[in-house]
Amino acid sequence: MKSRITVGMIGLGTVGCGVAKVLLGNASLIAKRVGVPIELVRIADLDITTDRGLSFPDGTLTTDAQSVLEDADIDIVVELIGGYDPAKRFILKALENGQSVVTANKALLAVHGEEIFHAATSAGVDLGFEASVGGGIPIIKALTEGLVANAVTSMFGIMNGTSNYILTKMTEDGKGFEEVLQRARDEGYAEADPTFDVEGVDAAHKLAILVNLAFGTTVNIKDIHTEGISRLSTIDLEFAREFGYTIKLLSIAKYLDHEIEARVHPTLVPSTSPMAQVGGVYNAIHVVGDAVGDVVLYGQGAGSLATASAVVSDIVDIARSRLKNIAGRVPVASYQWTHRAPIRLRPIEEISSMYYLRFMVVDEPGVLSQIASTLGEKNISISSVLQKGRQQGQTVPLVIMTHRSSERSVQAAIQAITRMPFVSESPMLLRIEGAES
Q1: Which tens digits make up the pLDDT trace of 10-22?
Q2: Any catalytic annotation for residue 206?
Q3: Please, are residues 355 and 431 in contact by the beta-carbon 8 Å criterion?
Q4: Which one of 169, 206, 248, 254 is the catalytic residue?
Q5: Which residues, 6 or more positions from 430, have their beta carbon under 8 angstroms from its beta carbon?
Q6: Does residue 37 carry a pLDDT above 80?
Q7: Three-class SS of residue 151?
Q8: 420 vs 403: CA distance, rounded Å
Q9: Beta carbons of 382 and 401 less than 8 angstroms apart
Q10: What is the DSSP string of 387-433?
Q11: Residue 90: which of 21, 11, 13 has the closest Cα?
């Protein structure tokens, strides 16, 4: 039996420092749970001179990533540099060399996951990526092990802490998007370029990974309909509240009629629902299984130590397997490789939903009747109408809530209404989840 498990890490940024702190600070506890020590023997980073408040033995730090990949004595390689290249090359090389790999790289797995999963399966080594979705929330293990007896019927959740923080503060403080975004930057919750977060791209990457695992199918990230929160106005948050809803950026997947809906967009959820109560940078993921029913996982979706917790959990899992000289006990992509199959992702035009529609219109007689008539022509049934601040001849918001309708019909109606002379700007369309149709 091996006397220790050795780890080499590539990347000593925020998460890398967190992983080092957990492995060093909890070394005794981890050794008791694994049976032997887990030792961080080499760390590669371009910057090895900055003081990060950590102390390593001489020779641990290097600027040469190849020295991690080419060391036959390293059991597990942890990739924490992010991005596509050279991260992909490093991971594939480690797998080829027979080293197990742990990564937090959701963008890489969302875009190139199939190649990496296949490489790990072919090499007969383990690949851990718990930290790629939900930070410290153990959603990957839940899907691949805890809920393995279930056919997943749906998943939805808040999977991006930056966007959730912004929406929470916009709702609580009544401030506009740009002002709250700057506050998020100042408090360290948003990057200098927050595009991936606020435009839903980060959440779509995570959803792609979960759909792959839950349904055993390849996912093209381009097939996931993705909208962000940058167009949202405080007026939409206020109207939503008046109707009894809260707006959240939701990632949604549903298995319907042998097809999958996979979409990310701002969504109205009932204000009394658990999802509406998830505030700040926290994440929550709701999974529905045919046997277990509803399961909700909630916790910190980002941060150095929360993400490190997930990375180290993968290291421990793989270490236990290495001590038993086994690999692949849990298939890397959840399903046995030969039983994965293509499943069609349903285009957004083919879904149905309830809708929130906000039109900015000139306040004059006949406006509502013309809009209602157009909606009726497209078989869209109105459930509620709200108009405020009436000023004859001035532009005012007109909000319409619909019963369940087809996306294609709603989009066609909006196109027709947008061309009407009394409409002053592009309408706002938001979908509604978690309410009766």
Answers
A1: 999 999 999 999 9
A2: yes
A3: yes
A4: 206
A5: 236, 240, 247, 265, 266, 267, 268, 355, 356, 357
A6: yes
A7: coil
A8: 23
A9: yes
A10: E-S--TTSEEEEEEEE-SEEHHHHHHHHHHHHTSTTB-SPPEEEEE-
A11: 11
